[in-house]
Amino acid sequence: MNTKIFAERLRRAREDMGYSQRILGMRVGLSDKSISMYEKGNVYPPVGNLLKIAKELKKSINYFLED
What we know:
By secondary structure, the chain is mainly alpha-helical. The chain has helices at about 5-15, 20-30, 30-40, 45-55, 60-65. The chain has 5 helices and no strands. It is globular, with a radius of gyration of 10 Å.
């Protein structure tokens, strides 16, 4: 899994929904700092968080993980 691709897809999907990092975080029970770290490619979200994010952004998990 490519960190840069993951981070870019997460940012793009969030922006396409019109969410700020803060709003996405609130909707999935995470801090905006966590969302920011994921979007910077510093860390990958745990599977449970990724499932919540994918569902909220109306994307499949594969959208975020496939190269």
